[in-house]
Design goal:
654 residues; alpha/beta; TIM Barrel; Rossmann fold; 2 domains; 20 helices; 17 strands; binds beta-D-glucopyranose
Length: 654
Amino acid sequence: MTPCSPTVRDVSSPLAALLLGALLASPAIAHDPVHPEAWPSARSPALRTPAIEARVEELLARMSVEEKVGQVIQSDISAVEPDDLRRYPLGSVLAGGDSGVHGDERAPASAWLDLVRAYRAVSVEARPGHVPIPVIFGIDAVHGHNNIVGAVIFPHNIGLGATHDSELARRVARATAEEVAATGIEWAFAPTLANPRDVRWGRSYEGFAQDPALIARFAAAYVEGLQGTAASGNAIQAGHVAATAKHFLGDGGTFEGRDEGDDRIAEAELIREHAAGYPAAIDAGVLTVMASFSSWRGAKMHGNADLLTRVLKERMGFDGFVVGDWNGHAQLPGCFRDHCAAVLNAGVDMLMAPYGWKRLYDNTVADVRSGAIPAARLDDAVRRILRVKLRLGLFDAERPYEGRLDLLGSPAHRATAREAVRKSLVLLKNDGVLPIRANARVLVTGLAADDIGAQCGGWTISWQGADTRKSDFPNGESIFAGIKAAIRAGGGTLVEARDSEGSPKPDVAVVVYGEKPYAEMQGDLKLAIYNARMALDEIRFLKGLGIPVVSVFLSGRPLWVNQEINASDAFVAAWLPGTEGGGVADVLIGTADGQPRHDFAGTLPFDWPSVALLPPLAAGPAQQAPPLFAHGYGLSYGHPGRVPRLPEVIGTPR
Ligand code: BGC
Ligand code: BGC
């Protein structure tokens, strides 16, 4: 039987559950036709082993409807106390971007560990009528263990994509997993496998690249970095955590790059541009997939049974579980934050219900009793969740990495991050000013020069990543500090802006500037342009004094910066490099006799726009201006090149 055959196999199959659901309850959510056979196939390895399946069935047989419903609900730590798990045996808790330990985003790592253990202890305690099943704790560790003070923050995915080095991405993910596991947390909501087709989308930096083949390569490596290789067959939690391929599907394909928007594209394009990462992640053993907030041709992904069940679970053979996104179920017509059968019936296995989850629990129990949610569908969801928990080794007492808080910000992890920063830098222009001699007089200036928060961007300490302070990064180094160290070591002089008056002219100025931190929704743009005047004025002022200028541009995406490029003698796209600012100095600052210490290795993971007025990709081929620099572009010391003067009128193609 083909995986997409509509024949009912047994009542526990997802498809049977679905058909039953459609018959018994909510009318199926209408969406465009899907052709599962046109999609790539894949298969989850080492998840449905006979040993795991036997344990799953044994547990399931003892669980009440209430206990099963508990498993399919995840609440946020800001709205659930460990004690609540006695009355409501939830399967999972998460720490959202703005949630800290008892409201404290800057709680020490030891407090996070205590919190995780407190939830876990209640979930596994022996009580009458309760089957002890460890709760799974999830967090957005999307560029390192980024909610935790002291963790190493790695470049956001766009920077990793620029390295084109998936083995490096694997090591980054491995280091992230160790820091997450050290705090007792078992599940990272990463990697994002979006293909951002319009960089005005504020989440563009969460995507690795615009090339589906590269996304697929990174997907596999990143999942294996977080989880270990599936082939080992070992319990995963020894220094590893569950990964999440997100957001299924088409999060990066929305009209005009609008967050949570609508993909107005044909099925063939959805497959070609947006699906590539998933088969690779599934074959690599990814344990969870997160549904996308976005819609496809007007229908919300959370309700799309054909894509979630027939494509993802059947055609792509995904045996783990699908988690919904933050209250994503509430966005479906006829659904509410505290009541929604349709999303579970469509194939989401766990609802991310940060708050309002108590009534959701009661309503879901009632829906199962009335048949609005078929018992077989609930059982299928619970089976998938238990399978993941067993595969992870959550039932095992031994957790060798838990409590090893020395791993947070460890020298080894910092070295990996610094290497990633070095390799992620893309040299757009260099008229010969780089590399800077280590014995030169160097002025380092610009609003973001000494600002680790700006280097890290969104999803850092808080959701949007704004309002961080120096003390949030005890193990970090700013770009300024990194250059200072390199110049001091090389016998040069660091000139600070405030003491530049009256003293001899600097040989060169490094100006660091770029986008301020942002995350979901708040990062969307109408135009793909960087339009803060301050940096440009500063560059022009320095040039007026006869000082050559190197621009280091921090951004979550390529933006129209023709004026800044023209005004600068060298221009480096540094993306959102994270806490290891020293990696920038490694490449910019050469030896005292002007030889490079490290060459540029990064190339553009996305086209760099030549116009700001037209959407670079979404406008349709006829209206698209050719990119200023196509993806794959990047100069180096070994392969220099000249960039002609660029047009400065917004909207004029090169
Ligand atoms: C985001 C997800 C994230 C979740 C939990 C959602 O708003 O879309 O990517 O994992 O919140 O913070
Ligand atoms: C949470 C994030 C979440 C977002 C979605 C925020 O309050 O902290 O984790 O992704 O809301 O709306």
